Amino acid sequence: MIIQSRKVTVIKISRPLKKDINEELQWLGNSLGLFSLRDKDKSCFRVFIELLKAAKAREPLSSDEIAERLGLTRGTVIHHINKLMEFGLVSRIKNKYMLRVENMEDLIDELKRDFERTYHNLKQVAIDIDRSLGL
């Protein structure tokens, strides 16, 4: 049996006022807790954008390819890819990486399904605990 865990964080942040694609992508990532204030050069955001471009082209990328395209070290890229994988946004295909789905709408729908499955399991365990405790 494979137990797969995903860390999903949702942060309520005001949406950007102006319609700018970069600001909206940054807002989406911040709302999901992907990008931290410690990431001064926005390298995680840049890795995410590179993977988004690769999804559009349906082309998985290696960590070396991403590092070269972005002028980052392979270690930095691997760190951010691991974080994005922990969030359930990135899949590994052999030695390459892709976003879990092909577009942002599908990505959010997948996260919603993950949340709903987790919610259902939490609710069932809560019911079982209440029954066991006679509550």
Descriptive notes:
This protein is mainly alpha-helical. The protein has helices spanning 21-31, 43-57, 63-70, 74-86, 104-133; strands at residues 90-93, 96-99. A two-stranded antiparallel sheet has the order 1-2. A hairpin with a 2-residue loop joins strand 1 and strand 2. Helix 2 (43-57) crosses helix 4 and helix 3 (63-70) crosses helix 4.
Structure characteristics:
two-stranded antiparallel ribbon, globular, 135 residues, Arc Repressor Mutant, subunit A, single chain, mainly alpha
Note the main sheet: 2 strands, antiparallel
Quickly count the domains: 1
- Alpha carbon gap, first and last residue: 33 Å
Q: How many DSSP helices?
A: 5
Low-pLDDT parts are none
The assigned CATH architecture is Orthogonal Bundle
The percent of residues in helical segments reads 55-70%
Morphology call: globular
Structural class: mainly alpha
Beta percentage is: 5-15%
Query: What is the third-level CATH name, the topology?
Result: Arc Repressor Mutant, subunit A
Strand order across the largest sheet:
1-2
Break the fold down into its secondary structure elements and pairings:
Blueprint: H1 21-31, H2 43-57, H3 63-70, H4 74-86, E1 90-93, E2 96-99, H5 104-133
Antiparallel strand pairs: 1-2
Helix pairs in contact: 2-3, 2-4, 3-4
